[in-house]
Design a protein that fits this description.
Layout: H1 8-61, H2 65-79, E1 82-86, E2 92-95, H3 106-113, E3 118-123, E4 129-139, E5 142-151, H4 153-203, H5 218-273, H6 280-312, E6 320-322, H7 324-341, E7 345-350, E8 357-359, H8 361-377, E9 383-391, E10 394-401, H9 408-411, H10 423-429, H11 435-445, E11 449-455, E12 459-467
Parallel strand pairs: 7-9
Antiparallel strand pairs: 1-2, 1-5, 3-4, 4-5, 6-8, 9-10, 10-12, 11-12
Helix pairs in contact: 1-4, 4-5, 5-6, 6-11, 7-8, 8-11
The protein binds adenosine-5'-diphosphate and magnesium ion.
């Protein structure tokens, strides 16, 4: 484990330690005081009781003073008591020790004379503590005060013993505290370090999942959601990289598309500019070629613009009810001359009644036009059939031709912009490879799907379906063949 100086680990560990040691020390002093007062209580009770026994014995037996004195003397020795008898004037009548005087306080004496037994704790100049009981006693000679005094050094040494034990226990507890604090802190901070390492990796762009922590707490949840985040981030990162590739591919495709017509334009204008072409027929031919290239560039530009609008979501879709057959009929009539020019028959097959649908009429027209144009382009002396019908909740439209068809492999790429199966032929047809991408995008804008069936040499069938109501229906969208880029080089 890596431990940094000002780390979370040390802060937590020291915090832990301070709390545990403080609790330990507090507990030690508390225990000492509890035990002290416990021992004092026992001792106080003993001295109270024993002095009561003495006083009662003296009162009951009504012995002579000398007899009482020897009675007290025999008790004082084994109990380590010093005993006085004091008369009502405060004069010491009897003392078990030869040292003169008593250290009974005036207040205590007064209380005892008034009939109340009392206990006092005193400390002498050598800091030795004493317990003293003063209680009234009625003997043959009248009322006296029986005072019993005992040093509590014995108690103190007992307390010191306990203190020593407590201290040793405390040291053990302290050591245990350090170990426990270390263990728990480690347990808490290890996972945090794992998380920190994980985020550091994200910081340098490594989207690696971390081990899922089994801490059974929020950190575990955190590690799980962290990994979810990592998965998302790495997906976004991958998508971003793919987008970057798409973008650069798009730019190179586009430059490629622009370069060829521009080169042609340059050559022809150069020839015309210098007046090198004298022949009128040749001049007309050059100008015609210039016009063709210009038209091609214009088409390319408007197709690109439309694709860009769709992709940026800026294309306005004006949903309105219209008759799709009417639009299809219009397209067919419009493209008839072009089809005838190629020796093609262009038919509209009636496939039952078709209701009005909800959609964007202009977009619909463009979809059909692009498909019909392609069919004409890739069919010579054949038949092109446009069909429209209803399947379930969808309008289906298909454009079938008996043209050149295409290979299985090409079918997955044709929806990709700039893709052309045969580039040489595309040049000759002045195509951009954007027509079908636009078809697919427009159909998808209508919550529909597109498809193709084709066989080389036999012809192709392009079809699409869109919901009659213009609303998305479940499953209406087919699998997205994707925006894979297919190299056109
Ligand atoms: N009806 C068709 N028959 C055979 N090939 C087709 C047909 N329609 C499209 N294609 C192929 O798909 C490619 C892409 O079509 P499209 O996106 O319309 O681009 P463009 O028509 O500008 O070449 C065409 O270049 C062609 O190779
Ligand atoms: Mg086309």
């Amino acid at each position: 484990m890596r431990i940094r100086k000002r780390s979370f680990f040390w802060q937590l560990f020291l915090g832990f330690l301070v709390v545990m040691l403080a609790a330990n020390v507090g507990l030690y002093f508390y225990m000492v005081s509890v035990i002290k007062s416990y021992v004092y209580n026992i001792e106080s009770r003993n001295i109270m009781r024993e002095s009561l026994v003495m006083a009662t014995d003296m009162a009951n037996n009504q012995r002579t003073l000398a007899e009482d004195e020897s009675f007290l003397k025999t008790l004082a020795q084994p109990l380590d008591y010093r005993i006085w008898l004091i008369n009502s004037n405060g004069a010491v009548v009897f003392d078990t020790r030869p040292i003169a005087g008593s250290n009974i306080s005036r207040a205590s004496l007064r209380q005892a004379l008034a009939g109340a037994a009392n206990l006092t704790v005193t400390t002498n100049s050598r800091l030795e503590s004493f317990l003293t009981v003063a209680r009234p006693v009625t003997v043959r000679g009248g009322s006296l005060v029986l005072a019993v005094n005992t040093p509590i050094s014995g108690i103190n040494s007992a307390v010191r013993d306990v203190e020593k034990q407590l201290f040793l226990g405390g040291v053990l507890v302290a050591i245990a505290s350090v170990l426990v604090a270390f263990y728990f802190t480690r347990k808490l901070t290890m996972p945090i370090n794992t998380l920190i390492r994980g985020t550091e990796q994200v910081g340098v762009g490594n989207y690696e999942e971390i081990e899922v922590l089994n801490t059974n707490n929020e950190l575990q949840e955190f590690s799980v959601s962290f990994n979810n985040m990592i998965r998302r981030l790495s997906r976004i990162d991958e998508e971003q990289k793919k987008l970057d590739i798409l973008k650069s591919n798009f730019l190179s495709d586009l430059s490629h598309e622009l370069r060829t017509p521009l080169t042609t334009l340059e050559a022809f204008t150069e020839a015309l500019k210098d007046g090198m072409v004298e022949d009128e027929a040749k001049k007309r031919q050059y100008v015609g070629a210039l016009y063709e290239e210009t038209m091609h560039l214009k088409r390319l530009t408007s197709d690109l613009l439309q694709l860009a609008r769709i992709e940026s979501g800026h294309l306005v879709v004006e949903m309105a009810a219209f008759d799709p057959l009417e639009v299809i009929r219009g397209v067919v009539n419009n493209r008839l001359p072009a089809a005838r020019a190629k020796g093609d028959r262009l038919l509209l097959a009636a496939g039952g009644p078709v209701p009005r649908i909800l959609g964007d009429r202009d977009h619909f027209r463009q979809i059909v036009t692009n498909l019909v144009n392609n069919a004409i382009q890739f069919t010579s002396g054949g038949t092109i059939t446009v069909r429209a019908g209803v399947e379930g909740e969808d309008l289906t439209v298909s454009v079938t031709d008996t043209g050149i068809g295409m290979e299985e492999e090409a079918m997955s790429y044709i929806w990709t912009r700039f893709f052309k199966v045969d580039k040489a032929r595309a040049r000759q047809h002045q195509e951009s490879g954007l027509g079908l991408s636009i078809v697919k995008k427009l159909v998808e804008l209508h919550h529909g799907c597109v498809g193709v069936e084709s066989k080389p040499g036999a012809g192709s069938r392009f079809y699409f379906r869109i919901p009659l109501t213009g609303a998305a229906t479940a499953g209406a969208l087919g699998p997205d063949p994707g925006d894979q880029t297919a190299g056109t080089d």
